[in-house]
Write a structure and sequence with these properties.
Layout: H1 25-29, E1 42-43, E2 52-55, E3 73-76, E4 79-80, H2 83-90, E5 101-105, H3 111-116, H4 120-123, E6 125-129, H5 132-142, H6 145-152, H7 159-166, H8 172-196
Amino acid sequence: MSNKNCENLKNSDSCNYCDSCDACYCCNHCNSCYSCSSCNACYASYRLRMSERMIFCLGDGRWESKGDGYQKNNMIFNKQVTEKEWDEIRYSLPTIKLPVLKWIGEKEMTDDEKKNARGWDIMGGYLKTMFYKDAWKIAWEEMSKSDKDKILGIKYFDKMIFEKITGIKIDDKKSELLKKADELIAKANELREEASKIW
């Protein structure tokens, strides 16, 4: 069965046919989707299948033909949104570079790593593949406050989905304060615009 849902393939860097995303390394098993160089249509999502234009969405798995992550478009935190709203939110978000590979030097290697990593003695270390949630933890710790606030301030932010995707637990109080601040800023801008119309 061909993927009738993939409208973004015309923008694809390498995936020219997509018979259900089985040909795409990352979209197929969707540990991150964002790192997929084939369609660039999802952002920090997990366990999707035949979906595109998803931001922080959680699916039921790559083999599941049902649920929130199966053949969906224009969703943010598993909530359906318009294409325009999806575009506005997506392009307001920072680029997230997950460190899925990390160089481990000889001095940092454990005995087990030295036993299991071939060629480390010639190279002076090895390239370690990070687990997805471990990579998120590193990226989150290194991310600027401004970029974190952009993510936490997403209109549809859902801390449970965020935690299931990234492994990062968000304090409710901080999320609430950031949302309230965004609402107040929006109201202030609205009032400023009204005031500018008065002579």
